[in-house]
């Protein structure tokens, strides 16, 4: 999420996580790397002034 | 976590492989793939409302291959202009179009022509005339600066070779105060160099 901050987004929040590869042929690779689906909210700053 | 692809990964080949895979998903959603698809998966794994999905054309929901449910971070609100980056066959796009209503706009962007055609056809079949679909790339969005109120994306930006460029594009097209409702996969452990160079893993 630091990447989004560095680029200029604000109010960054992780809202929810999912397990989209459970039961697929890539499940073992997903478990190996800790793969999750993640809902992330971010906002473009309001214009200053 | 590394966000750029390794130097020796062929970006053009990656792009072509992604287009091939998702063209196949569009035309044969019941075929064999490494990832789940369809409305039953969306409801059971990602908490989409089954009734809302049942009200959409089947050809927009059957190829759905998202990895989260970004609209759970809404609601988008009446009159909002929203763009769906990597809209695919249009499931999230059409749900968003219903949320923003006739005073709003829902713009789908996809680099796969087969998917874009299905998304637009499905929007018309659903009576949603606030939807348009454009062929385009997440690294160079076919949108003016500060032209939309919200951006959604579901399991797409992880397919780009340079995510910082994709995120900068999102920032560019959003109006000040605009929202980014972003769903994607993350990894907890750094990928090995061989896995990072494996296009099969990039494409799902």
Give an overview of the whole structure.
The complex is a heterodimer of chains A (49) and B (204). Chain A has 2 helices and 2 strands; from the N terminus they run H-E-H-E. Chain A has 49 residues and is α+β, with helices and mostly antiparallel strands. Chain A has one domain. The radius of gyration of chain A is 15 Å and the shape is elongated. With 204 residues, chain B is an alpha/beta fold. Chain B contains 9 helices and 5 strands. Chain B has helices at 11-27, 39-46, 50-54, 58-61, 91-100, 113-125, 163-173, 193-196, 199-202, and strands at residues 81-85, 105-110, 131-135, 148-154, 174-186. A 5-stranded parallel beta sheet of chain B has the order 3-2-1-4-5. In chain B, helix 1 (11-27) runs parallel beside helix 6 (113-125). The A-B interface holds A 3-4, 7-9, 15-16, 18-26, 29, 32-47 and B 3, 34-36, 45-46, 66-70, 72-73, 155, 163-164, 167-168, 171, 174-189, 191, 195, 201, 204.
Key attributes of the depicted protein:
heterodimer; A: 49 residues; alpha+beta; two-stranded antiparallel ribbon; 2 helices; 27% helix; B: 204 residues; alpha/beta; Rossmann fold; 5-stranded parallel sheet; 9 helices; 37% helix; globular
